[in-house]
Specification:
By secondary structure, the protein is an alpha+beta fold. Helices cover 33% and strands 24% of the residues. The chain has helices spanning 2-16, 69-75, 77-82, 103-117, 136-156; strands spanning 21-24, 36-40, 43-47, 52-56, 62-66, 88-93, 124-128, 164-168, 189-194. The strands form three sheets. Strands 6-9-7-8 form a four-stranded mixed sheet. A three-stranded antiparallel sheet has the order 1-4-5, with no helix packed on it.
Length: 195
């Protein structure tokens, strides 16, 4: 009997210490709103509107609500200001069978590099790609050379080399699907993901 009473007391204490949970759905920078399902026991609700929220109280009961942007900004100002910057994606293009950027990409690159270098604590992944011209092994090497060329430019501008990685995907992830041995300028690129 004492064991049951102790177990019951522990369970009640654990339930009393349960932290309430609130989930608020925020839109992306471009205004896109995703969807999230919040569940508590058998209850669940789907949040699919900007600033919709769901609360799970200490008793495990679920309730849904919504607010406007200003109310969410006021209530969660400290948490929102502590969020890291959203990931950024950039793309530069290369000459045929070369790790030299096209003239258009060279003119855009300086602004991209400046944004990346100015972002505190950023980690960068540069992924090089090729079109389907030439043998796969050659394209694997070329795609890596493209990624390494971008990496080298960032490091030359003062970006921490330990925080930028380069990888090559060859012709495996085409931006524009083409048959083998097809020159496609949009596939000759490096994707730069900044987190």
């Amino acid at each position: 009997m004492k064991l049951r009473l102790a177990s019951c007391a522990v369970a009640c204490l654990a339930a009393a210490c349960t932290t309430p949970t609130r989930v608020v759905l925020l839109p992306d920078d471009d205004g896109h709103v995703g969807k999230v399902v919040v569940a508590a026991g058998q209850d669940k609700t789907t949040l699919d509107r900007a600033y919709a929220s769901a609360d799970v109280n200490r008793a495990g009961q679920l309730s849904a609500d919504s607010a406007d942007r200003e109310a969410v900004q006021r209530r969660f100002a400290a948490a929102i200001s502590a969020l890291p910057p959203r990931p950024q994606a950039h793309r530069v293009f290369f000459e045929l069978d070369s790790d030299t950027m096209t003239a258009a990409s060279r003119s855009e690159a300086r602004a991209i590099w400046t944004q990346i270098v100015a972002r505190p604590g950023a980690e960068v992944l540069v992924v090089g790609h090729t079109d389907t011209m030439g043998p796969r092994e050659h394209n694997d090497r070329l795609s890596l050379a493209r990624a390494q060329a971008v990496r080298a430019q960032l490091v030359d501008l003062g970006f921490d080399p330990a925080r930028v990685r380069a990888a090559g995907r060859g012709e495996r992830e085409l931006l524009v699907t083409t048959p083998d041995e097809t020159p496609e300028p949009r596939n000759r690129r490096a994707e730069i993901i900044v987190r």
